[in-house]
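Appendix C: a fully annotated inverse folding record. The material below is reproduced so that readers can follow the format used throughout the book. The structure is listed first as tokens, followed by the designed sequence.
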């Protein structure tokens, strides 16, 4: 009888332990590394969108909205297979293009100022009757960059001809960071994590971009992907080519003020 009693006690203990075990399909949330947590925080908050040392293009203060863009062939009714940013080394020609775009706008864009750099001509305008809005209309100098034939909606492929000399890593970084400003990745739920030269690819520069893909209704985890947008230049001709390379992905979600892996 003593053996039977002990057996009952042991059996009860086993049952108690088993009832506390996690179900077989349970998976603990994946822990985020400190780097992943920082990336996720930048995407959820929307700032900062670029890393330290990234080239800046500050907007003039005092306006509710500042829009910056380069005049495109489609705005000038140029017959072309793609809509690309036009270029000119003639200030008067560039201004005439700017005026054509201003006249075609729903509200005429009054000319209020201009600036010339070694990269582009800028024509500053304000929509008539809307003094709180500011438009910076730019035209590349052909001596710097010729984008004829570029598909500005594509994330890979031919990216133009860089005519600036000498061609070096600093010039390539400058143009890669500048071009990013006019892509879909310069928007909410995207951020540049790193901007680095790729010497193994000769004259090449990469922007590592993180993107947030919100979970569908009923799902709890958002998808965060990282990819490299790599710009290479032919040292002889200046031809630019862009390629994309997947880096990695992870999943996360916000729980109040916390960001957790999943």
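Designed amino acids, in order:
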């Amino acid at each position: 009888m003593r053996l039977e009693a002990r057996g009952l006690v042991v059996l009860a203990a086993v049952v108690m332990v088993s009832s506390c075990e996690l179900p077989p399909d349970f998976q603990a949330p994946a822990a985020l590394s400190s780097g992943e947590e920082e990336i996720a925080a930048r995407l959820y908050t929307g700032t900062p969108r670029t890393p330290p040392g990234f080239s800046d293009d500050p907007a003039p203060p005092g306006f509710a909205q500042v829009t910056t863009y380069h005049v495109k062939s489609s705005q000038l009714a140029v017959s072309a297979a793609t809509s690309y940013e036009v270029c000119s080394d003639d200030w008067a020609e560039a201004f005439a293009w700017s005026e054509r775009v201003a006249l075609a706008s729903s509200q005429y864009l009054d000319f209020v100022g201009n600036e010339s750099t070694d990269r582009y001509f800028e024509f500053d305008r304000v929509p008539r009757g809307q003094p709180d809005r500011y438009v910076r209309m730019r035209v590349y100098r052909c001596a710097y960059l010729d984008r004829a034939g570029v598909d500005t909606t594509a994330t890979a492929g031919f990216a133009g001809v860089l005519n600036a000399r000498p061609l070096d890593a600093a010039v390539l970084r400058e143009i890669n960071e500048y071009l990013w400003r006019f892509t879909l990745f310069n928007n909410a739920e995207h951020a540049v994590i790193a901007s680095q030269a790729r010497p193994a690819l000769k004259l090449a520069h990469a922007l590592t971009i993180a993107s947030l893909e919100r979970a569908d209704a009923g799902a709890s985890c958002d998808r965060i992907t990282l990819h490299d947008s790599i710009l290479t230049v032919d040292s002889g001709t200046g031809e630019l080519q862009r390629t994309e390379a997947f880096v990695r992905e992870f999943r996360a979600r916000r729980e109040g003020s916390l960001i957790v892996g999943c």
